[in-house]
């Protein structure tokens, strides 16, 4: 059977969280009815949209029928075809049953006004009901239209066109091990003020013996020398340098496979076309990190078009490169020895950095070998 990996955030950005034993859940959600309806699925929102009108039409039609019935307009001598002979003044003209009351309710609520059924000064309660239903119709239409508009312009919809690479990679950059992933935007309308964050979720034990199974650690990330703020006009590779301040500093290639952790990445910014904030999320577990790989370039200059061309077919493509299989801490110790510092490396460090064992990346069975000779 395929082993199920625990993760807090799915690849599509949905949070893998289920709530239970909430006290007064329905009451609290009804108090914030607008947000509750915006969070509904589309089928429930459209059902509520239709029922809000149909039920209100039926309710006011019943009220109109009661007003007309108590006034006596539905008696045989007072029906529309006999009103001219009897000289009867009805509350609403051209009403002969519940069906005509229902049609008059629709005309009043939406100010259609076909010109056949009209109220008369004969019944003050009919005039009051006409005013009340007209006000209710405007408010209900504005409320439901606002909900539909809010659902269509949610930040979650814009996040569908923001891409994260399928895998993260670890390789050397300027002699330092770095964790990298790629982000991209499919639309021509850019994300203004784009910023990216990354957090590591893993188990931590305190000095007092407390075990925190979901401990968050902020990772320092950036792209090139611009930090975490992006000029997001094409796909960019986000880098986290594995240095002394990194929680991954002591992990080698083998530990990366055996350890259990998750890296949650978050991209935030303002949509250029709408001015609304948006957020896209994804995550990488330990088996989704390729050790000894580098992302292939996807941005090339097209001389024929005289513009930079982005090949999204290669967005997730990586190239295998020679990379030490030891941890960043062990690698730094070896570099210090090479530079002439008398910092003795432990026997375990020397044996690990000889890297005689290979790191198997997911979906690949190739073996990496890296050997480092140390002048003593």
From TrEMBL:
<dbReference type="InterPro" id="IPR041647">
    <property type="entry name" value="IRK_C"/>
</dbReference>
<keyword id="KW-0813">Transport</keyword>
<dbReference type="GO" id="GO:0035220">
    <property type="term" value="P:wing disc development"/>
</dbReference>
<keyword id="KW-0630">Potassium</keyword>
<dbReference type="InterPro" id="IPR016449">
    <property type="entry name" value="K_chnl_inward-rec_Kir"/>
</dbReference>
<dbReference type="GO" id="GO:0016020">
    <property type="term" value="C:membrane"/>
</dbReference>
<keyword id="KW-0472">Membrane</keyword>
<dbReference type="GO" id="GO:0006813">
    <property type="term" value="P:potassium ion transport"/>
</dbReference>
<keyword id="KW-0633">Potassium transport</keyword>
<keyword id="KW-1133">Transmembrane helix</keyword>
<dbReference type="InterPro" id="IPR013518">
    <property type="entry name" value="K_chnl_inward-rec_Kir_cyto"/>
</dbReference>
<dbReference type="InterPro" id="IPR014756">
    <property type="entry name" value="Ig_E-set"/>
</dbReference>
<dbReference type="InterPro" id="IPR040445">
    <property type="entry name" value="Kir_TM"/>
</dbReference>
<feature type="transmembrane region" description="Helical">
    <location>
        <begin position="126"/>
        <end position="150"/>
    </location>
</feature>
<protein>
    <submittedName>
        <fullName>Inwardly rectifying K+ channel protein</fullName>
    </submittedName>
</protein>
<keyword id="KW-0407">Ion channel</keyword>
<keyword id="KW-0406">Ion transport</keyword>
<keyword id="KW-0851">Voltage-gated channel</keyword>
<feature type="domain" description="Inward rectifier potassium channel C-terminal">
    <location>
        <begin position="162"/>
        <end position="333"/>
    </location>
</feature>
<dbReference type="GO" id="GO:0042391">
    <property type="term" value="P:regulation of membrane potential"/>
</dbReference>
<keyword id="KW-0812">Transmembrane</keyword>
<feature type="domain" description="Potassium channel inwardly rectifying transmembrane">
    <location>
        <begin position="9"/>
        <end position="155"/>
    </location>
</feature>
<dbReference type="GO" id="GO:0034702">
    <property type="term" value="C:monoatomic ion channel complex"/>
</dbReference>
<dbReference type="Pfam" id="PF01007">
    <property type="entry name" value="IRK"/>
</dbReference>
<comment type="similarity">
    <text>Belongs to the inward rectifier-type potassium channel (TC 1.A.2.1) family.</text>
</comment>
<feature type="transmembrane region" description="Helical">
    <location>
        <begin position="44"/>
        <end position="67"/>
    </location>
</feature>
<dbReference type="Pfam" id="PF17655">
    <property type="entry name" value="IRK_C"/>
</dbReference>
<dbReference type="GO" id="GO:0005242">
    <property type="term" value="F:inward rectifier potassium channel activity"/>
</dbReference>
